[in-house]
Amino acid sequence: MSFTPPRCPNRSCPVHAMPRRRFYWRNGSYSPDCRAEPQPRFKCRTCRRSFSRQTFRQDYCDRRPDSNATLFKLLTSGTGLRQAGRVLGLAPSSVQHKMRKMTRNCRWLQRNLTQQLPAGRTYLLDEEETYAGASIRPLTVPIVMEQESWFLVAATAGPIRRLAPKGTKRRTWQDHHERKHGKRKDRSRSCVRGVLARLERVATEGPVTLLTDEKSSYATLAKERFGARLQHATTAGTAARTTRNPLFPINTTIAMSRDNMGRLRPAPHRAAPRRTAPHRAAPRQAVPHRAAPNRAKPDQTRPYHTRPIQPNP
Predict the structure, then answer these.
(1) Packing angle between helix 81-88 and helix 68-76, nearest 10 degrees?
(2) Rounded-to-integer distance, Cα 70 and Cα 65, Å
(3) Per residue in 237-259, pLDDT tens?
(4) Full-model pTM
């Protein structure tokens, strides 16, 4: 099957953004180790850069492209990065690099699929709460998705501020953290505005039907974004989360997200900060140096000392 390059991969080339017909020359072929058939090579007529069919593949520059499919299944199953590396025989850094590349490609695919959404669809909005590093640093993850297909339209993340009751140990911990790092910002409303703005850009035709729970800020933010186009309906958050619940798709998506978050492991013990002994934590000038051990004088011989054997003349 013949391959036609869609554009020049060089981002600084004018043909990258606005490709024209026959912008390239054919430049032979080569046989990579990861492919059974030869890969055609091309050369751009404008910038004179060479590229091949492999340049446009997801496994471009991969040394172990055979492990990508298995790694993707492991990551979507909640497997930790180190465990995935042990299963596939990869270093943790290699697993991280592959995961970032897969993330970029999935993000590009999602953007290509959401250039324009059809009219007459129903969308769901809800927020997932998690934390970063410690439970006193909570995060909100607002999600907008289509009800029927479960297609994720937009998602983002931002910090929120949730203070415990005064006098509790947790509140003392939070106060100490804010004195050290400053007052934590609450970006819940701005994050919800962001996902609604994304929905507005891709759903440009007809009315927008939005289903949420009974959080009061959802109605206010959606009204200021869509105006008269909005058809808003709410469902109580205490309702049974069964298949009859209108919010069942987004509730299940959030549950799946939390399950996949389980692959995030705490820092290993060897990477954790060491506890410094009290005498080592003191200033250097306050710690007495250990006295140097007494050394035997040249004319003294220790009991365990033996003279070197003299070679025969």
Answers:
(1) 150
(2) 10
(3) 889 989 999 999 999 999 988 88
(4) 0.72
